[in-house]
């Protein structure tokens, strides 16, 4: 799909940089909501291409990071049951819960399998009729429909031993909660392109309408991101609040209605607890009554340890964009990717992990 | 952690592996040859300067595009000797075999070891075979150790990295890791993707014969190019800056990385060498490498900088600069 | 939060499709994109096609950017 030459890319990048520098006459703070954007920004070294007036802060868009300890503790408790196979994306494996992690449980014999697709869980369930296969259904609107479709496929296949442990979350309600709290001044938002591919443009309409914040739906190539920063800086300079869609190639205004229909069949909106943000009304997804037999929490007994948060860990503030990773006393000392204390350090997409791995403040040109 | 246990990530070749060796093995065995932590140890015996190394092979699947566990077991040890600046001479081979393993597969593995040994000019002069109960190992594990003669007039050590040196790589990265994981995660690879597994002793010997001034030689295996560069930067106390655009990655390998969320800079290679040399010699090194089948795509990918000590930087495709850290944990397929 | 790659549909049977990226192929489900056709580019996430990639739109965005940059010179 790449048809631009290197020269063209460099010319465009230079153009965006020049325009951003020209238009950003006073300090602006832009939040990239999405963890994949956070990583793309660091990986491409985009922060250094921006003038000091433009500050990028990371938002609550890393699904692993915003999943509260209690969820991990529940997954760990299930994994200790002898007849349970946990299936999970690789992202969740090393996340520390209150006293353990799935990687640690795996090392002591728990049957935990990394899958690329939730559908892989169904093959595992079919091959292990004597076991209960529990898929850790974590993610935002991009991923939730894949879990919903897997539940439907399990029903169709007549599988009685497949379950989801659901902690899906929704992006727009979290943005509303952040802006309502007003704890962090955000002048513009970079919106998650792949969430938007499912939900479309409309759910973000309130950002400009009610909060006067310009926002851009954008993709993940370095030029997409630079282009989106340029569009935001331009809107801010003109004093306009509007929603722009830089990622039309995969984000039609209405999103993906077929995926939304599948999602709606299996899941309904529910209040959800976010690490750092607390309980946000209608910001999560719960398995609907008709599919309760696939809901691990409703269908299977489990005893979960008392949830503890690490004292001193400032993941919550980092997730709200209030603190930068370097503000946390544990960052880079007690908390590193090898020995993470908080989820922001363990997830590849976590803000702390990205800061650490890509050397924010560590690498001098 | 009071009852810390070994995790799979301790074997990934990245930070956790280093920590484990530094905390558990190195203190127990400390000596000057070991403490250099090179791919092969340099020792003296009976007046001869020797390089000595060992490695165990536990690859799954046993047979993959471009090679198998046998070829890997010979090439890996041959390459560790070659990048120690030695001519590989003798290998040992230890087999740990699971009860029930097909003898036909064993023959195939051994035949491919022999072919690789012939190409590399080494002889397997001693060995050992153990059979363990079903389930105690996964099919077959192989350990090889090797001895080589240090090539006179050369001085290869990670400590020789100096600011201003060029860093040369002999071809595209990530092929081995991608070929080995082909069957996993439902991916089907085109025939164009195969492990780069190859004995590099011939190419490296030719380079050292032409340019004995080569300062550092390493093969970026587990942990990938990024981890190896970090090891050198840390040991020599220098900075390293590499250029993303100069590091070749096949489109098929990049595609697998994009799908599974991997970074090719951390993928294992089994037929790659990186060479540090003062820049006036770079052209000659590259000419010699390109004349060799395993070095056709040799090129400069970066250079050594005075600062920041112990760190590796990457100039990105779009012109930014960022830290290129060591691998932490295993690369796992991820969706976010 | 969501890695996804564009891939080309090279074959489809019912709600399963074979998609291709640089010669690498994989089976993906079309449950979330039932109208996708062979030859189209789709966005792949966690084993599912989740959206079609509009090549015309991609070209338009690019041209728009190109124009902006050209205008500058």
From TrEMBL, chain A:
Keywords: Iron, Metal-binding. It comes from the Bacteria. Transmembrane segments: none annotated. Pfam families: HypD (PF01924). InterPro entries: Hyd_form_HypD (IPR002780), HypD_1 (IPR042243), HypD_2_sf (IPR042244). NCBIfam families: hypD. Belongs to the HypD family. This is Hydrogenase formation protein HypD. It comes from Anaeroselena agilis.
UniProtKB/TrEMBL annotation, chain B:
Residues 42-150 form the PurM-like N-terminal domain. Residues 162-312 form the PurM-like C-terminal domain. InterPro entries: HypE (IPR011854), PurM-like_C_dom (IPR010918), PurM-like_C_sf (IPR036676), PurM-like_N (IPR016188), PurM-like_N_sf (IPR036921). Pfam families: AIRS (PF00586), AIRS_C (PF02769). Belongs to the HypE family. NCBIfam families: hypE. This is Hydrogenase expression/formation protein HypE. It comes from Anaeroselena agilis.
Automatic annotation (TrEMBL), chain C:
InterPro entries: Hydgase_assmbl_chp_CS, Hydrogenase_HupF/HypC. It comes from the Bacteria. PANTHER family: HYDROGENASE MATURATION FACTOR HYBG (PTHR35177:SF2). Belongs to the HupF/HypC family. This is HypC/HybG/HupF family hydrogenase formation chaperone.
């Amino acid at each position: 799909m790449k048809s631009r030459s290197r020269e063209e890319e460099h010319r465009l990048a230079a153009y965006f940089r020049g325009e951003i520098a020209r238009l950003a006459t006073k300090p602006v703070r832009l939040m990239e909501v999405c963890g994949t954007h956070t990583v793309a920004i660091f990986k491409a070294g985009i922060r250094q291409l921006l003038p000091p007036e433009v500050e990028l802060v990371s938002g609550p868009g890393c699904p692993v990071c915003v999943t509260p300890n209690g969820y991990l503790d529940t997954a760990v408790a299930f994994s200790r049951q002898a007849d349970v196979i946990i299936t999970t994306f690789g992202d969740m494996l090393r996340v520390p819960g209150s006293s353990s992690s799935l990687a640690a449980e795996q090392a002591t014999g728990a049957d935990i399998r990394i899958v690329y697709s939730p559908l892989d869980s169904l093959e595992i369930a079919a091959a292990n009729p004597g076991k209960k296969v529990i898929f850790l259904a974590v993610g935002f609107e991009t991923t939730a429909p894949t879990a919903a479709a897997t539940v439907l496929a399990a029903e169709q296949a007549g599988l009685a031993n497949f379950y989801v442990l659901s902690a899906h979350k929704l992006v727009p309600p979290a943005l509303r909660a952040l802006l309502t709290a007003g704890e962090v001044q955000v002048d513009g938002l970079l919106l998650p392109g792949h969430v938007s591919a499912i939900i479309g443009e409309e759910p973000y309409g309130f950002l400009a309408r009610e909060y006067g914040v310009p926002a851009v739906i954008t993709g993940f190539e370095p030029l997409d991101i630079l282009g989106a920063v340029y569009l935001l800086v331009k809107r801010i300079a003109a004093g306009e609040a509007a929603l722009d869609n830089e990622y039309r190639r995969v984000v039609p205004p209405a999103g993906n209605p077929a995926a939304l229909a599948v999602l709606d069949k299996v899941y309904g909106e529910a209040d959800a607890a976010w690490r750092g943000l607390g309980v946000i009304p209608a910001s999560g997804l719960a398995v609907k009554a008709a599919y309760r037999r696939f809901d691990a929490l409703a269908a299977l007994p489990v005893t979960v340890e008392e949830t503890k948060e690490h004292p001193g860990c400032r993941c919550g503030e980092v997730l709200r964009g209030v603190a930068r990773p370097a503000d946390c006393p544990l960052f880079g000392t007690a908390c590193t990717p090898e020995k993470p204390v908080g989820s922001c350090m363990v997830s590849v997409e976590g803000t702390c992990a990205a800061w650490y791995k890509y050397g924010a403040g560590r690498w001098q040109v | 952690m009071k009852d810390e246990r070994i995790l799979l990530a301790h074997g990934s070749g990245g930070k956790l592996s280093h920590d484990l060796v530094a905390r558990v093995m190195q203190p127990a065995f400390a000596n000057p040859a070991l403490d250099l932590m090179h791919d092969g140890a340099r020792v003296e015996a009976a007046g001869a300067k020797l390089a000595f190394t060992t490695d165990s092979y536990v690859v799954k699947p046993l047979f993959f595009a471009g090679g198998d566990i046998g070829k890997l077991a010979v090439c890996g040890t041959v390459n560790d000797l070659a990048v120690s600046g030695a001519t590989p001479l003798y290998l040992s081979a230890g087999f740990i075999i699971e009860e029930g393993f097909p003898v036909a597969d064993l023959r195939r593995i051994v035949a491919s070891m022999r072919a690789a040994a012939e190409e590399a000019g080494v002889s397997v002069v001693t060995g050992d075979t153990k059979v363990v109960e079903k389930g105690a190992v996964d099919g077959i594990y192989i350990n090889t150790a090797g001895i080589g003669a240090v090539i006179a007039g050369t001085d290869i050590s990670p400590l020789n990295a100096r600011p201003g040196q060029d860093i040369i790589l002999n071809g595209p990265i990530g092929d081995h890791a991608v070929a080995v994981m082909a069957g996993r995660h439902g991916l089907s690879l085109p025939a164009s993707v195969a492990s780069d597994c190859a004995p590099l002793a011939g190419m490296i010997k030719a380079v050292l014969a032409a340019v004995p001034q080569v300062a550092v030689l390493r093969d970026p295996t587990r942990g990938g190019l990024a981890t190896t560069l970090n090891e050198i930067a840390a040991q020599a106390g220098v900075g390293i800056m590499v250029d993303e655009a100069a590091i070749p990655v096949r489109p098929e390998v990049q595609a697998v990385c994009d799908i599974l969320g991997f970074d090719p800079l951390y993928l294992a290679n089994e037929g790659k060498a990186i060479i540090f040399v003062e820049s006036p010699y770079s052209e000659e090194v590259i000419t010699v490498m390109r004349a060799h089948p395993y070095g056709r795509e040799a090129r400069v990918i970066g250079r050594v900088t005075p600062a920041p000590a112990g760190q590796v930087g990457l100039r990105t495709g779009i012109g930014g600069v960022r830290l290129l850290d060591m691998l932490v944990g295993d690369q796992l397929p991820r969706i976010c | 939060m969501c890695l996804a790659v564009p891939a080309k549909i090279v074959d489809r049977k019912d709600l399963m499709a074979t998609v291709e990226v640089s010669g690498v192929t994989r089976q993906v489900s079309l449950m979330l994109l039932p109208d996708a056709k062979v030859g189209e580019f789709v966005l792949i996430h966690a084993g599912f096609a989740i959206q079609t990639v509009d090549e015309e739109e991609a070209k338009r965005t690019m041209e728009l950017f190109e124009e902006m940059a050209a205008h500058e010179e």
